[in-house]
Amino acid sequence: MKKSTKIMSAAAVGALLLTGGTTFVANAGTSPAAPAAKPAADVLIAASNAVPQNRISVGASAKAVGAALEKCQADKLPFVTVALVDRFGTVQAILRGDNAAEHTIEAAKAKAYTAAAFGAPTSELAKRIQGNGPSIADLPGTLFLPGGVPLKVNGVSVAGIGVGGAPDGMLDEACAAAGAAALIK
């Protein structure tokens, strides 16, 4: 009998250790002695540590992509997509023309980003690609084909407008330029 009592006691102790360990794990990190984290909203930084950012407004973005698509439609190119992105490549406005294929969406975004990031029309940037080795054309998200135009404020690129889908990149770029010109007026 003593032997079975010892076995039961060992089993009971094992169960207590197991449940105690589970309770310890469940309560880990909830110690009332741990200091509360300060909410991020209470942390203020000096304005000199922030970078001001210029962006194209939503109204201007819509106006630019509309003007670019209008130009393409007037040129009998209804199957293009127009994209306007900020200088980081985030889409601000996109307008897909009638019968525009899926690939035109990505092409328009990539051309717009390339123009914004490099601050030059993609037709000019395409001329810089030379040789067979690695080049700027290998950078992710870029497309060095005509059709992208940078949008600048005080000489600094803040966005780009790109068009994809015309049978010639210079036709795409003429539409993108019309979209950019709509913001000058």
TrEMBL record:
Keywords in alphabetical order: Signal
InterPro entries membership: GlcG_carb_metab_protein, PduO/GlcC-like, PduO/GlcC-like_sf
Signal sequence annotation: 1-28
Pfam families linked to this entry: HbpS-like (PF03928)
The keyword Magnesium is assigned to this record: no
PANTHER family in UniProt: PROTEIN GLCG, SLR1406 PROTEIN
Name under which the protein is recorded: Heme-binding protein
Organism expressing this protein natively: Arthrobacter glacialis
Species classification: Bacteria, Bacillati, Actinomycetota, Actinomycetes, Micrococcales
